[in-house]
Design a protein that fits this description.
Its cofactor is Mg(2+). This protein is α/β, with parallel strands linked by helices. The chain has helices at about 35-45, 85-100, 120-130, 150-165, 180-195; strands spanning about 5-10, 25-30, 60-65, 70-75, 105-115, 135-140, 170-175. The protein is built from five helices and seven strands; from the N terminus they run ββαββαβαβαβα. The chain binds guanosine-5'-triphosphate and magnesium ion.
Length: about 200
């Protein structure tokens, strides 16, 4: 997929700020620091359009990126970071609920999981939450460059089994470092966007 155009539309703290434009959207989801923003950058071949950091909690708002004048990628803040106050966690919950429960443009989601670890309880809750809204979920098993080739099958099975993924949802091994999995992820995204 050739990306000719990619720009930030808005960093939204609430629904009043969401873009009005009626083009399809694909939203990210996943733990803090798992590599959601890096996934977006790799997919659209921009080094740091979606801001990344080695510290968790970099993305704090819903960031809408318009791609090829045809769809929005929506970057979101992660969950599961221990050093977050109760108040901040509640704010996160409201921000997500408002988006995932109500956004008509939302076509599909990409749940990003670190392939090195078993998905957490939070990951399982997030997957079920997205399915509750009947959203297609592509599971991006990222940081593939960080495990040995011989461990891949075992780790991928662990991810799929722990999440109890639906048959219709695809698990995509991915690395934002090497770009592995990029073609498979685009293929799936184009299916979602054209359906
Ligand atoms: P929050 O916005 O805090 O929720 O984090 P995020 O999920 O957007 O993570 P981000 O993309 O900022 O990446 C976190 C860290 O992981 C950064 O240091 C990235 O360079 C690194 N990282 C992300 N993806 C990969 C990958 O595929 N391989 C390797 N080796 N590092 C990665
Ligand atoms: Mg981020």
């Amino acid at each position: 997929m050739k990306v000719n155009q990619a720009e930030i539309v808005i960093s939204a703290a609430g629904k009043k700020q969401y873009p009005k434009e009626f083009i399809p959207e694909i939203a990210l989801a996943g733990r803090s620091n798992v590599g959601k923003s890096s996934f977006i950058n790799k997919m659209i071949q921009r080094k740091n359009l979606a801001r990344t950091s080695s510290k968790p909690g970099k993305t704090q708002t819903l960031n809408f990126y318009k791609i090829n004048e045809s769809f929005h990628f929506v970057d979101v803040p992660g969950y599961g970071y221990a050093k977050v106050s109760k108040k901040e966690r509640a704010k996160w919950g409201r921000m997500m609920e408002e988006y995932f429960a109500e956004r008509e443009q939302l076509q599909a989601t990409a749940l990003v999981i670190d392939v090195r670890h078993q998905p957490t309880e939070d990951d399982c809750v997030m997957y079920d939450y997205l399915k509750h809204f009947e959203l297609p979920v592509m599971v991006i098993a990222t940081k593939l460059d960080k495990i040995k080739k011989g461990q891949r099958d075992k780790q991928l099975k662990l991810v799929a089994d722990t999440l109890e993924m639906d048959d219709g949802d695809q698990l995509i091994p991915f690395s934002s470092e090497t770009g592995e999995g990029k073609d498979a992820a685009w293929k799936k995204m184009l299916e979602y966007l054209n359906s």
